[in-house]
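Re: pyridoxal-5'-phosphate structure - here you go.
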Amino acid sequence: MLRVVPSFDRIGEENAFAVLARAGALAAQGRDIVNLGIGQPDFATPAHIVEAGIKALRDGHHGYTPAIGIPPLREAVARDLHRRHGVEVSPDAVMIVPGGKVTMFMAILMFGEPGAEILYPDPGFPIYRSMIAFTGATPVPVPIREANGFAFSAEETLSLITERTRLLIVNSPANPTGGVTPKAEIDALVQGLAAHPGIAVLSDEIYGSMTYDGEAHVSLLTYPEIRDRLIALDGASKTYAMTGWRLGWSVWPKPLYDAARKLAVNSFSCVNASTQWAGVAALDGPQDCVATMVAAFDQRRTLVVDGLNGLPNISCITPKGAFYAFPNIARTGWKAKALATALLDEAGVAVIGGPDFGVHGEGYLRLSYANSAENIARALERMNRFLSDHAPG
Ligand code: PLP
């Protein structure tokens, strides 16, 4: 009998991938499925970025690179952070990793152990909780509330800190809610953290380029008082429609950088070389491709929110960032996951049940509006028909 270590009983996963697989299987059987489940841009990676990746392969970039990433990419990341946030970041603090997820994996491994507590947003990206549980640390959910516009509350977050808290994870703009936390709230959080110098902060800013209605994304990198304990997570997946390339990066405080480098050496060695050169082209090249994509998401955001608010017993606040809507379905009488399953099986619409993002996600669905206006309209029309025809399950 093989004996896998018990921590694997505690590791979770991301149900969006299971829904993607199920939607694909149904489509393969000939069913017409509209997929608003998975969170990835429906755009192709911009051509100049693809060309840079191809050129790197043609130019012979076929070998290992430094585990921390090629210098031109680490320099490009530093320049990008300066351009977007006005912050000075040394390329020596930047680590190149295969996707946004890898930074959270490393950070949680560094601070999670039995007896430790790690605070994370709920509803939030499911891998936070999964990895915290895997390390044996106690996952402490910070409720993210609709009444607060799905921003996190500094006061509530600070109230959950104990002497066992080692790491605080924040995410704005947020998955799955589209919530953007305003500057005043982040100011209050940073101020409150002054009393807890032993707590590290992981700021997941992977949707930082996607905000709407003039709402600004405030990077935690702009607070010098926490830079010595801040891990800033970012990457190319969402901003440049590069989910399949596997390219992320993070900024680490000096004392943690070498630990992260060693994790890289012990696991993936380096991000594949051509992807890194594509990343240089993405960050140093024209940024109008990002603006065009965000403008398209903005239009679809209106379609999806207006459409959802027109459905029986559903209400949806307007998300200020990312490309997700998180409608409240409590008044339909359906449990969220049962409704998500019924919508896929019976109406051919893939969405994700809120509880897949944590216990505070009950009563909500997540819809990704990274899909065409036409598909969004079809999905809403099918949901309308389904909800009008079906009593709660
Ligand atoms: N962080 C958040 C909040 C996300 O929503 C995602 C992807 O959905 C990631 C990180 C991971 O991104 P990547 O695909 O680059 O690993």
